[in-house]
What we know:
By secondary structure, the chain is an alpha/beta fold.
Amino acid sequence: MSGAAEVWVWLSRNREGALSVNVNELLYEARSLCRRFGADLTALGDREPTTAEMELLGRWGVGAVRIVGRALPLHPLCEDGRSPLAELAGAEPPRVFLMADDAFGKVVAPLWAADTGARFVPSVSGITADASDEPKIVAARSTHGEQFESLVTLDGSRPIVVTLIPGAVGEGAEPPGALARNPRVQVRGAAPVRSVDAPIIHPPDPESLDLADAERIVAFGRGGFTPQAVSLVARLAELLGAAVAGSRPAADEGWIPFSRQIGLTGAIVRPKLYVTVGISGAPYHMAGVKDPETLIAINSDPEAPIFGSADLGIVGDLYRVLPELIARLERGEPLAGAAAAETGAAAKAP
Ligand SMILES: Cc1cc2nc3c(=O)[nH]c(=O)nc-3n(C[C@H](O)[C@H](O)[C@H](O)COP(=O)(O)OP(=O)(O)OC[C@H]3O[C@@H](n4cnc5c(N)ncnc54)[C@H](O)[C@@H]3O)c2cc1C
């Protein structure tokens, strides 16, 4: 394998400025690659980590933290189509660059590959080193609703960038107990680094909350393709502090951006609460909904497959059900009570 002996991990952050939940998963995969190749583990980010974050990175064995010297845009395509990270590759690109399969990684990783000549493998569920004499990288990708796994084997002739789907490693991604390294911080770029002591706090924004980080999601489908239904869905999401998402037809027909589509060919989510409105529950949609603590389905068809996955099903017309739920939530009733009142059922919803 050629190139500098480094594995890079991008430090994704949520809108509150905290490290994203799956940074540990990225570091877990990166650490095992580093052990196999004797490579150095480097973290990249757009701001200097806090003391606690540096301690966490040190436990993972991160040797260096490189800071991009300016805030990165949420949609880097706005920056004339070039990856803002391309300059960092320089003459010594890493062997492997791991990014989260979130809204940022989905845009930046392919751009980085295009700018640096790296190979890009999107949405992997794991990445390991082949144990042969000439080490190769093997990236696993789930297909057909996770019924099959395809393995992509890559030699080391070019750098590789992958995006790792959130939850792929899961709870096993715990850092080792002891501090392995004391990472050093390198700042790149002319502009000052944003302060980590005074992060910008954004309230949950249903329009832009990253689906991978959203604990609550309200998703709508073909049953809700009218301006009235969409505004009811938006109001329900606002009251719940939830992100708005949709099925593939909702994206195909322009009711949501493609980044808000959930399913096999969209985002994979693990919310605590998932509310569906006018979604039938097709397998390709449900492939993107991983173990929600509570799934509440609103659908006018009692035979809709979504009810097979729901903790609480409300059979009814959304134009009648949603205003009633919204009114109850506006009166301060918890969702469980409001939804159960609609059905007469007992619910375990929050
Ligand atoms: C290769 C492949 C990949 C795919 N990837 C995805 C993916 O990533 N994500 C995805 O979502 N789909 C995906 N699909 C499409 C998927 O198979 C389904 O076609 C799609 O999920 C259906 O979307 P829907 O539930 O919005 O629409 P429908 O299946 O048409 O369901 C609409 C529902 O709304 C209900 N309804 C209608 N009016 C009302 C009302 N007034 N009140 C309440 N309920 C009402 C109906 O009873 C119905 O159940 C993929 C398909 C293929 C072939």
